[in-house]
Amino acid sequence: MSGQDDAEREFDLRWADDAEHKEPSARARMLAARWKDNPPAPQPFRADPDHAGPRRSSWRSTAVVLGCVAAVILLLGYANFRAPY
C-alpha cells in the first residue's frame, strides 16, 4: 500500500460515522460536568403566557400587508401611466 491509501483510509468519513463509540462534543462534556453537581431547574415547555408580549390581532396585520401591496400596485400603475412610450 502507498502513503496515499493510508491518508484516504484515515479520513474516510463513512468509517468514522460507523464507529461504535462516539465521543461527546466539548460542550456536552462541559455541561455534563457542570450539571453533575448542580443540575438545572426544570423549565416549562412553553413560555408562561403572563410573560409573553402583547399579541396583535391577525386581521390588523393582514390589513397592513394588503394595504402595502395595493399601494405598490397603484404606484407602479401610476409610474407606467406617466412614462412616455
Could you please describe the fold and organization of this structure?
By secondary structure, the protein is mostly helical. The chain has a domain at 58-85. Helix content is 59%, strand content 0%. The chain has helices spanning 3-10, 13-17, 26-37, 58-82. The longest helix has 25 residues, at 58-82. It is flat and about 70 Å long. The termini are far apart. The mean pLDDT is 79.
Poorly predicted residue ranges: none
Order of helices and strands: HHHH
| Helix content range | 55-70%
Calculate the terminal CA-CA distance, rounded to whole Å: 75 Å
Mean pLDDT: 79
Topology readout:
Elements: H1 3-10, H2 13-17, H3 26-37, H4 58-82
Main traits of this protein?
59% helix; mainly alpha; 4 helices; flat; 85 residues
In short:
With 85 residues, the chain is mostly helical.
